[in-house]
UniProtKB/TrEMBL annotation:
Pfam families according to UniProt: AAA (PF00004), AAA_lid_6 (PF17866)
Protein name per its UniProtKB record: AAA family ATPase
Basic and acidic residues composition bias: residue spans: 27-38
Protein family (similarity comment): Belongs to the CbxX/CfxQ family.
Domain called AAA+ ATPase: residue spans: 160-297, 474-612
Key words, A-Z: ATP-binding, Nucleotide-binding
Origin species: Candidatus Faecalibacterium gallistercoris
Membrane-spanning residues: none
GO molecular function annotation: ATP binding; ATP hydrolysis activity
Region described as Disordered: spans on this chain: 1-60
Cross-referenced InterPro entries: AAA+_ATPase, AAA_lid_6, ATPase_AAA_core, CbxX/CfxQ, CbxX/CfxQ_RuBisCO_ESX, P-loop_NTPase
Low complexity compositional bias, start-end: 39-53
Amino acid sequence: MGYNDDWESLMNSVFGPGGRMRAGGTAKKEARPAEKPGAKPAAPKPAGSAPRAEAPDLNKALLEQQKTLDKLLKKQNEALRGQDASTRQALEESRQLLRDMEADGLLAQGAADIPAAQLGSFEGLAAEVKQTVLGQDDYVDALVRAMRRPFVLGTDGQKARNVILLWGPPGTGRHFALEETARRMAARGLLQSGQMARMDLALYPDPGAEKLFLQDLYAALNGPGEMVLFDHYESCCPAFLRTLASLAVKGAAPLASRYLVNREGILIDAGTALAAGAVSRITPRGKYLIFFSHKGREEMAGLLGAGFVAALGDVCQTRPFTAESLQALAARLLNDLARLCARQLKLTLSAGEDVRDYVAGQHTGKLGAAALSGCCERIFRALSEYCLRQDRFQPGTAALEVRDGVLCFSVNGSAPAPLADLLPAVWDGGTEEVRQELDALVGLDEVKEYVFGLADNVRVQKRRAAAGLKTASLSMHMIFTGNPGTGKTTIARLVARYLKAIGALRGGQLVEVSRGDLVGRYTGHTAPLTNSVIESALGGVLFIDEAYSLYRGEQDSFGLEAIDTLVKGMEDHREDLVVILAGYTREMEQFLTANSGLASRFPNQIEFPDYTADQLLDITASLAAARGYRLDDSCTFPLLGYYQRRQAADSRTAGNGRLARNTLEKAIYNQSRRLVAEPDAPLDLIQAGDLEFDE
């Protein structure tokens, strides 16, 4: 039988008469993962319909056809050697048909052009992945070995194909390397596709999320792809972790109730009904179960148990990037940038080692390799802006160089200029404006000094990162203590804006809450309520006023649960959340005893002193000016005497800043009544006779 006969027979086995797909389905196009360092895998798609009886047969049929296609491709590649030109042309046309099948989702991406000797084989796979995943050779070797293990040891029905832990520092390419490996395995026919389902276990922190967890887990295990990824297991409810441990260790997890699956793939609690087809357990369905973490197996054993850790088939660890690996990564990214500039901008990019080292120096512990990609993206945007300012694209040479730490460019020998000048000015969050507001506040010198010191630390850490040194994150959780009206809430609001402005926070929002926003009204309500508040504050500041009200003694189980949940949330999101607690000094001291880990989470405890009479006078004048009024000189001595008496008697109940505001409002009211009788008097002047004091 000739090649044409082979091809016709194969096509007839995939398609029925009239070009219709056999087995009653059509395949969807497969999306390729983004090829960027540090890129995250796509979120799992929700189940579109309930599993039908023919679905497993369809998947099996597609897999069998995949294998047959691979065999045909091998046969054609072997025949290419020693054939005449006409035969080679005919076979190349057949290969083009295979590429068309890739576009229709009937063949794994890249399979049509893969060398025949590598189809269905792991040979050379690690070396291939290392071409795009730089600086993590040991990790790639271990990852490919983990993927290969079930091919050597065999699989056991519905049990997990392999249970894998991928861990290491943030930004070291754990996800990206897996994406690249899966994509290339699919191209070789080792996987049906490079698709993978992902579950963020931080979304299921408490027992109240049980139905959501089971639904998402069922959809992930029954959806497309052969890998299920689990992130942030440290933040997951322990009961759900036990379910995952059963999947890994026993190959199945029994459900507390029986469920039906409707046409949309949604689990419906069947209760005690003896319904046909009810689901009473979940199995891994022969998929890879892959867990991500920044910690190793010892920490994992503490949450998931020693049995789970023993069931791990492979543990793969990334390492912090070395200077050499960062330079290699920067060089590759610059080469990609040069090709992009030539294609899109008609510019030939020229860059030396100084530019390579500049790009490599953008690496940070938090962003990792993604910071290098971001730097190259900014370079491209800047050069694009240069081209947009010209009448038309003109071919030329764009030379990059670093001068005194600043990345500069020149086109066709022009004078070098800072590249950043081409981009729109980056909004600094109003740093100077916030600083001026802080400076304008009366008193609070110690508080201001601390807040401005945070900015100094952020700048120094950025300089260390640029120099390739390790950075140290600074705990910015704070406790503000002091009497009412001493400026605690005002400072908290300004701190949120200031931390955003200096780049210490990505969001900068301030979420103000009290006990009622955190403590639930019934058992099981508090933890979800507190977690929802924490989620809303991520990237910004969570400000809890009168925080001592959360603890009303050892019998206050709801309050203690809120505190425990808060402490855990601070630990889970320590780089993306600042918590500020405020309250009276004595009460806050008692509050810190409610949880053994509470005091250690707040290294910055700042006492807000009571205002002096002179400071209250300045506050009154400042408030008046903000509202378009001014104080007559005759007001000075009466106000000073009044403020001295009130603060000396009881500053805690006097109100401090609120005392000044209330006094001014009474004066404005009295002045308006006076102006009715004195129409020619200045409208903005408050006189001594307008003052009214509560003694």
